[in-house]
Amino acid sequence: MRGGLVLLLFSRLCFLGGSSLLMIIKPVSEMPTQIASLIELISKIITTVLVLIKAIHYDCENAGLQTKFTALTGTAMVTGLMHTITIFLHRGPSHELRTCWIGSLIIVDILNTLITSISIFYGLWWFVERWMPILMGVYIFLEFILYLGAVCFQQMEKCKTERDRQNITVLENRKISWRFMFAICLVFYVMFTVALIVGVSSHVMKKC
């Protein structure tokens, strides 16, 4: 159970490290995103196997909770697989199917994020310490800030004047600002993930 939560947290970090939504909002390199999606999928497959093994040999009186967690992790694995498939079906700006690809990518990513987060929250509520679900909530809030910031940077670039287009210094400053924001958010994601993994590994669980 603890190992499954640790792997889900790790897969969540992999998703954010190479988020496919950022390929649309603020283009990132395609190869790192594909590698991150593969690692995320492998982590979820291992998690599902571990939880299934635990469910089969479960001896707790609250076995219904374990069944729900198994169903959530299985669904998260399916959405992770769909996410990986859409990433590898990348369509460039000039491709005629790009609009359909972007729409499917957004839907799959939202589902993937939602199901994985629900699975993690469900697992964290099994622990006595209440700071872990709160920290996970802050984690998701920072993710929202990252996407919102990416959208703002993109709109700023669309609204720039002709003079700005010819001013290399202005463009470079905007790129540096975006990279700095992404790096800061990623550092916080790593810190929060490590804190949650330590909490899951060391703190007392309730129900069983």
Question: Could you please describe the fold and organization of this structure?
Answer:
The protein is mostly helical and 208 residues long. The protein is 81% helix and 0% strand. It has helices spanning 2-17, 21-25, 30-56, 63-88, 98-124, 131-158, 162-166, 168-202. The relative contact order is 0.14.
Could you give a short description of this structure?
With 208 residues, this protein is mostly helical. It has helices at 2-17, 21-25, 30-56, 63-88, 98-124, 131-158, 162-166, 168-202.
Ranges with pLDDT <50 over ≥5 residues?
A: none
**Average pLDDT over all residues:** 78
Structural class: mainly alpha
Q: Any idea what the radius of gyration is?
A: 19 Å
Features of this protein?
mainly alpha, single chain, 208 residues, 8 helices
Question: Secondary structure elements and their pairing?
Answer:
Layout: H1 2-17, H2 21-25, H3 30-56, H4 63-88, H5 98-124, H6 131-158, H7 162-166, H8 168-202
